[in-house]
Amino acid sequence: MSQKVSSFSSSSASAKLLAIRWNRPHLSILNQLLLPHVSEYIDIRSSTAGHHAIASMQTRGAPAIAIVAALSLAAEVSQKRFSTAIEARDFITERLDYLATSRPTAVNLFDAVTKLKRLVVEEARVAETGDQVVAIYVDAAEVMLAKDVQDNRAIGSNGAEYIERMAGELGVGRIKVLTHCNTGALATAGHGTALGIIRSLYQKSGSILEHVYFGETRPYNQGARLTAYELQCEEIPATLVCDSSVSFLLKRDPSIVAIIVGADRVARNGDTANKIGTYQLAIAAKYHGRLFIVAAPSISVDMGIGSGEDIVIEERGQEEITMASGFVGDKVAQGVLERETLCVAPLGTRAWNPSFDVTPAELVSAIVTEKDVFVKAPGKNVFDLAGLK
Ligand code: MRU
Fold it and tell me: Catalytic residues per the record (predicted)?
């Protein structure tokens, strides 16, 4: 099936980069499977639709997943009538447990589910009607949406200040940075985490940020499809590179002072699960003496997990590696969208496709949160993140 390609203009960058639209009680999400060629919003009216949107990657990115889960249920319960507060509580808790099965690695989803379940259980003890429980639930989901944008802006300014200070200490004037995956407005409720730092740094008057490199992020191409789109929309000078070219790039270009990535889950000691390929970037940064910065809201820190060994890593289908999926190039140029899947490897090739990896804290220079920038104490290989919770 063919679709007409939308053109974009940079003047509407922030509108184009809104991954989640909530207008009580209506939720719609930008279908990220069609980006960068088509901006199409899908209505999400139930937790079943929310679960599908997360599992099928129509929406993705740790913070966005949690918020879409919470709001999909908010949309559903806003349209339902419950006879009692207990009935509302039981429905909401059952649906939250179901939403928690959509993807396994990002802690934000589990954190949101735990907090919302606790809230409705407590509320059902005192509320007189189902409507009251629903109202409390929807308010709480809306607070999560607003807080994510607020946290990301704080991460952006904390990270930008940290990088400016480090560049000053290194005696470098104009700098370049490298990022991985997509951690921007599309992965969150707005602004972004790692890409949020880049955005904040670039928007500062007299910015020291000259250029951004970003990896394609095989096999799902969040970098090539989504980060490329965000950087173009914002007119930030940037260059796409193959994931495998980063070590060579760092060797060639000493003005790349930092690699900045997001996180799906940070363990108590600072070990960080993020998109596959992050670990090898951290090794390359260490070897070449560059900063390796993790940007994440404090809810991404899972104090219940001592080290990265305990983080569940999602494994996805082999076909994401053995096949390549995209839109026919000359048709896109003509403004028509036609999806095509190509067979890259010989039929029957086995492939291993972990969606995330774990970077040991030892390789991380700093963890930037909305509250503070954390660095390791001198001589230590792990972080002390106790102050966060
Ligand atoms: O599989 P995805 O696209 O959901 O993975 C996203 C990432 O790994 C991001 O780097 C991470 O969620 C941080 S997003 C602010």
Answer: 264
